[in-house]
Every structure is written in C-alpha cells, then in structure tokens.
Amino acid sequence: MLNFTIDENKKTNFPHYWETCVGSCHAYTALREDYRKQLIKVHKELGFKYVRFHGIFDDEMSVCVENFDFNGKSQGITYNFINIDKIFDFLLTIGMKPFIELSFMPTCLASGKNRIFPYGGNNTMPKTDAMWEELISRFISHLIERYGKEEVESWFFEVWNEPNLPLFFAGNQKDYFHLYQITALAIRKIDSKIKIGGPATSFNSWILEMITFCENNHVPLDFITTHHYPTDDPLWQSGLGIEEFFKNSDQEKTDYHCGILKEMTTKTRQQAKSYPLYYTEWNVSAMVGDQIHDEPYAAAMVAKTLADNDGLVEGYSFFTFTDIFEEQYQKPGVFHGGYGLQTVQGIEKPVYRIFEIYHQLGMQRLKVIDKNQGTAEVLAVQKQKDLQVLVYNHNVPSGKIASEKVVINIAKKKKYKAILQRIDQNHANSFGKWQEIGKPEYLKQAEVDELRKSSELQDQEIEIGKGQIVLEMPPHSCAFTTIHNYFA
Question: b/e for 55-71, b at 16 or more Cβ within 10 A?
C-alpha cells in the first residue's frame, strides 16, 4: 500500500504549458479535410493553441518555383504563398496560430539534390545566401501584409528541424548557425519584434553552442527549441555526437529509466539560461510502429511527464495530434503504433484522454507528500472550489510494475461524493476494443463509432470518507478523482 498526503496550504501556479503547441506531419497535410476536423477537435477538447509542421517550403507547397523556356533557359523564380495562406487562414479561423518551422529548401534554391521522405523535403543549404534571404524576406513581408504586424508578432518562427541529424540537414553545426544567422537577420530587417529561435535539435543538443554563437555574433535569439524522446537516452547520456555514437556504440540499446524526460528537461533548462524554452517535439517513443503509442501505457507516461516538467519549460509540444502522418508513407491499418493522439480515422487513443483530463485541471497545484518507493504517483490540483486528484501508475517497458493500492490523505474528514474517471486496460481504451473486435484493417462507420464510444471517459460516482481517497491502480493506469465544492 502506498500512502500520500495532500498539503492544501502549499500551492504553486500550474500553467498549462503542454497546451501551447501540438505537432503534426508536413504542411501539405493541413490542406486535408480530415486533418482539419481532427485539429479542430483537439483545439476545442484539449486546448492546444499553436500547431507546428515540417516542410512549409517544400516543392509540393509551390512556394518557390523556377521557370524555364522551351530551350531550358531559366526565366527566373516565381513566389507563391497561396497554399500557406490557406493553412494559416484556416488556423486563425478556428482560433489557433502557427508555430512556424522554416524548412525545407525549395529545389530551385537548393545547393544539392538530397530529398527525404515520400513528400521529398530537400535537406541542403541554399545555393547562395541571397536566394534564401530573398525567400524569407518575401515570406515575412507577405505575412505582415496579409495578417497584420501585431498578429504575426504573436507567432513563433523556428529555423529548420533537427539540424544535428544528417537525415534532416546535410550540413554541419557551422552551416546551421550560418543559416540561422542569415534567416534571423533577414526577418529582423522587416520587423524587430517577430519572435525567432532554434536550434530545433534532437536529443536536447546544441543549446549552449547556440546561445554562445548568437550572443558572440549579435544574432537575434528570442527562445530556445529542442526535441527529445525517452528512447534518446543512450545517446544523450553518452555525451557523444550522433555520428560518433552510432559508430562506437551498440545501436540496439534502447533501455531507459523512469523519469528520464524530466532529467533531460532539467539539464536543458539549466543550459538555456534565461531564454524561454520550448520543446517542439516529444512523445513516449521515437519509433513509429511502437505499439505503446496506442496503449494505456502512453497515457500513464504522459501523465507522469507533464507533472514532472511543471515549471521547467514554456511549451511542450506533443508530436503528433493525429496518425495522418507521411514521413515513412501513410502506414496501413487502424492502430499501427503511430505518433498520434488519434488514429487516421479520428479514433481517440488512451493518450488522447489523459490530455483531456489535463485540460480539465485547475491552475493551482497542491503539494503532495510522498515517501513511497512504488511506481504510482499523485498530482493534486485546486480548480476554484474543486479538489482534483490524478493518480498514475507507470514504469518504463523494461521496468517492474504491479498493481498498487493507493491511499491519499486529505485534510477534511467529511463524507463526499466524488467523480472518478479511469484510463486502463478496461477503461477509455479504444485500442483494447479494436483487438476485441478482431483487429480489422479497414473500418466501417459503425465500427469507428463503436471504437470512439469505447474511448470515452466514463464518470463513476464514488464515496469518500475518513479523510482518505483509496484507489486500486493497475499497471500503466490513470485515475482522476474530482471532489466538487471541497474548498467551499
């Protein structure tokens, strides 16, 4: 049995930092009707304010195209922001904003022919600085003219995506810092108040180097961005560069321990100094096809991670809100281990429901006294007159975990009726229901409706007395208790 005590007299602010932004696949998917319906849903139900995607300058977006005559002679470049406008117009219409990742390189500007993913993002540097600066200048000027200076100044502009990975960027650190510099200066010439940052690296990388470069060279830097996943742990702990690591170590080693994301975030927070810190990608695993994305496991890990990283970051963008995702082509099937909170069909996974619970939470966190060594933990929050208590029982896939009896001591020993919502193998688990109905690869509408119904949080009325909330917590489960008018 694990005992916890809520100290109602010790409160701290609890901003919903995880709602700042959410990730998605490449920009062109934001023109799809199903993508838009799912984004509207997560904005309304989960509170996400910004959305980030790769490839806003990809050839499929028709942003920058070189024209040729019948003899193959160049007739110059045409700039066309109509597809970007359609996306941004939509975001503003539904009450969201773009967190703009400036990538990848349009073919007509690219110094090389490297193309990544089925949608063909080019990961090379520009042929010349001037050509890239021209694109950036035209783009920013167009945005200000269309949306207004004040609106655009409320957006975020991030240079590139994971430039420390050869897959995403063909250059080295020096190349990236140069690209960042010319981009930031081009933007600043047009509007000194637009927010720009980076380095948008994987593995919590290049933070100190980025700050040193910008400060020494008087380059604008308004915020720091980076990415991480728990499966990054072996590389992160090694202290090596990515090429060194994969050359000299066991690439198959993916073990990590519980709480690793908090350790990563804490160190990065220290490195980022006083700069605002945004994680613009994270998830419970970096591997598409890892089934834990679809299972209640993901909900329990997200519950712990969001509680752990409170106070360390300004934004923490889950990657992604949907399995409409084409980096390795659109994966077949319903539950295929995709990154999304929802399947391609819009079916909410267990992890969707923990974000729904977190969205319900108030803005005052209460201290929880915990002297236990078990796998269950407790988050307590005051929302106006209500007491909200979230319990999660989590460990990493390789760690030991068992059911835990959890006792939470509260100050008032009156009898209360409370509402309990659960996420586990038997509750809010559309993945389990899909397995139960035979794992169909293609769904009829009736099956979609059935799976969505099975994913819903169910209210169970419980009685609380003697100043204790007592819960049985299965492995990889969450339980959310609300005592209405507790502080009345």
Answer: bbbbbebbbbeeeeeee
224: Cα separation from own chain's centroid: 15
Instruction: Give the count of beta carbons closer than 10 Å to the beta carbon of residue 26.
Output: 24
pTM of this structure: 0.95
Helix (H) or strand (E) holding 1: none
Which of 65, 64, 61 has its CA nearest to residue 83? 61
Q: Name which of 98, 226, 90 is nearest 165 in CA terms.
A: 226
Q: pLDDT for 11-64, tens place per residue?
A: 999 999 999 999 999 999 999 999 999 999 999 999 999 999 999 999 999 999
Share of the chain above pLDDT 90, in %: 88
Domain boundaries in the chain?
2-10+364-483, 15-360
> What pLDDT digit, counting tens, does each position of 73-83 carry?
878 899 999 99
CATH number, domain 2-10+364-483: 2.60.40.1500
Give me the CATH code for the 15-360 domain, please. 3.20.20.80
Active site residue 281: yes
Report which DSSP code applies to 332.
P
Q: Of these residues, 19, 101, 158, 281, which one is catalytic?
A: 281
Catalytic residue, from 19, 101, 158, 162: name it: 162
- Using 50, 70 and 90 to split pLDDT, how confident is the model at 243? low
Q: Using only C-alpha atoms, what is the Rg of the chain?
A: 24
Active site residue 314: no
